[in-house]
Specification:
By secondary structure, the chain is mainly beta. Helix content is 9%, strand content 49%. It starts with a helix and ends in a 13-residue tail after the last strand.
Length: 160
């Protein structure tokens, strides 16, 4: 009976893990930590983006392979590439963003990001939006993104 109570207590503690909003406790999945999660979704267009910092504290490589955002028709993993004076955006190869062991990967404006295509929901500045991230090894992780003013996010957000 004691073992059952201990097991149930551990499961309850695991289920109560926090989401990783911009100013909240980071979400963790195994040795992955996700924080600084923000969303540029408030413009009156049918697209938007989600940004975050993902840190792999393990000794094994992982990869972000999918994401889901309620109110987004399609979600893809994208990157922006500068070729001289020309900027282009496209889905990352294989819809896979590597998260190497012991490293931090920034998803930020002007670089890698989670792209919302065909918005079906209304998003307002200050709103919290759940984001489900799927990693190759760590599996699914729930985080919370704060919807920000479109001009509020600057490149190099990890520098603050």
């Amino acid at each position: 009976m004691t073992r059952l109570i201990l097991l149930l207590s551990l499961l309850l503690l695991a289920a109560c893990g926090g989401a990783g909003g911009a100013d909240e406790t980071p979400a963790t999945g195994g040795e992955l930590t996700v924080d600084q999660v923000t969303a540029n979704l408030s413009l009156p267009t049918d697209t938007g983006a989600v940004y975050m910092r993902i840190t792999n504290g393990s000794a094994a490589d992982d990869a972000l392979i999918d994401a889901a955002v309620p109110g987004c028709g399609t979600v893809e993993l994208h990157e922006i590439i500068m070729d001289g004076d020309v900027m282009s955006m496209s889905q990352v190869e294989g819809n896979r963003i590597p998260i190497p062991a012991g490293q931090t990967v920034m998803l930020e404006r002007g670089g890698l990001h989670v792209m919302c295509i065909g918005k079906t929901g209304e998003f307002t500045v200050g709103q919290s939006v759940p984001v489900t991230l799927t990693f190759e090894t760590a599996g699914e992780m729930e985080v919370t993104a704060e919807v920000i003013e479109p001009g509020e996010m600057s490149e190099g957000m990890g520098d603050n």
